[in-house]
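Thread: SGNH hydrolase-type esterase domain-containing protein, structure

OP (GT): Posting the sequence first so everyone is looking at the same thing. Length is 255 residues per the record. Can we get the structure tokens written out before standup tomorrow? I want them in the notebook alongside the other entries.
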Amino acid sequence: MKLFLFFSSIFFALAIIVGGHFYYQQKLDLIAEESAALTAGIVIESVEKDVEQSELAFSGLLHEWTNSIESHELDITVFGSTSIELDNQPNESWPYLLHSKLTTHYQAPAINLTVINAEGTFSIDVLRGNYLQQVVKSQPDVLFFEPFILNDNGHVRLEDSIDAIDLLLQSLSTSLPETVIVLIPPNPLFGANFYLTQLEQLKQFAQTNNILYVDHWPHWPSTDDEALNDYVENARPNAEGHKLWADAMLKMITQ
């Protein structure tokens, strides 16, 4: 009887050891499976985040414009005052810098750029010249229009400037019905007074008439900050100002 109990005890102990081994092995397998699933989830999430970040680079206005054109080329025209071109260094002007950034860093279609500089011409005189014909001839998909508020400042009444801009836009919209027209303000000025009123009226005009208005001013130093003079000379952007303007436009049309 004692011998039977001895062997029974040994058998029972072995059973516990073997059973415990299988139990803990199952627990380890389960933990391993959960760990693998969790790791797989992190990888998928990471990949999804990478895709989202990649798509973000092509979102915004540029994404809309490139998707809307039927051809494999995007024609952009920049039309404005002397503020859009740097004296004696046109290739360092913000339109050309923006064009270079877009074609170098973004997988957009081929981008053709036309710059039409009306220099210091008053808005009323732009209506009488051949500038509009030049814009129409360029047949842009997107037209960046910097109205002649800065040219008119101190020379043309505000209401007359706004009326002239309205007529210019009406003419362009009629002649270029498929073109996206983007209104952009001219560069800011340090110590601006009445000029701020002009710009506010321009913004209100754009809002009232449902015109796309891209306001790059928040990317510049404030008009009461002397640091603005590092970017503007003789009321127009210098080389650093054109770089800042190009960077601001890049952010605003790709984000």
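GT: Both are above now. Quick notes for whoever picks this up: Residues 1-57 form one domain. The beta strands are 73-80, 110-117, 142-145, 180-183, 212-213, 232-233, 236-237.
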